[in-house]
Amino acid sequence: MTIATLMKDENGYTAEYVRQLKQPSEKVWNSITNNEKLKKWMDHLEIVDLRKNGKILFHYNDGSDQFEEMVITDYEEHSMIEFEWGEDFVRFEVIQTDEGTTLIMKESIHHLTDHTPKDLAGWQVCLMHLANVINDESVEVPDNEWEKWFEIYNTLLEQYK
Questions:
Q1: Where does the chain show beta strands of DSSP type E?
Q2: Backbone angles phi, psi at 66, to 5 degrees
Q3: How large is the angle between the packed helices 116-134 and 25-33, nearest 10 degrees?
């Protein structure tokens, strides 16, 4: 599994994950935007209003019933959704190809912090779960899988300090 590429830009950094999937774009899109599918790979998120300027909830899932509201900042049905992620943004692009679908996930990162490698590792594991959902597979991803990716991203980010 390939890791994200990290690029410096005028607003900070962009982490980009690219996945080639054999499934049609409709299935990939549905796995990202349908709450029943979404909770199988990112159980913190709940889409409340799927449109530009719509709303997504980030549930803490710690027993407190607390959540944060995030705005959908950009949206094109069946092809792209971008939403707030703290001070940053997360964007999913779904592109139909002859072989299936290219999924591009980008996280804009204004400032690198000690938490950034954990966040990038978390997205890496979420994308592993998402691929399982898209492919109707029940492959177990170990609970501590993010730790392996944390080390990889921690090493990657060293060159940007």
A1: 5-9, 12-21, 45-49, 55-59, 67-76, 80-85, 88-97, 100-109
A2: -85, 150
A3: 130
The residues, any chain, with a CB within 8 Å of residue 134's CB and separated by 6 or more, are 21, 23, 27, 28, 31
The pLDDT assigned to 19 comes to: 97
Token reading at 60: 């803490």
Kindly tell me the sign of the dihedral angle through the C-alpha atoms of 51, 54, 58, 63.
negative
Residues 158 and 150: their CA atoms lie apart, in Å, by 12
- pLDDT category, 138, cuts 50, 70, 90? confident
pLDDT, tens only, 22-49: 999 999 999 999 999 999 999 999 999 9
The terminus-to-terminus CA distance of the chain in angstroms comes to: 25
- The angle formed by the CA atoms of residues 101, 86 and 95, to the nearest 5 degrees, is 10
Q: Which residue has the tokens 């000690």?
A: 114
- Name the token pair of 72: 């959908």
User: Does residue 100 come out as left (phi exceeding 0), alpha (psi in the -120 to 50 range) or beta?
Assistant: left
Q: What is the dihedral of CA 114, 118, 119, 122, to 10 degrees?
A: 180
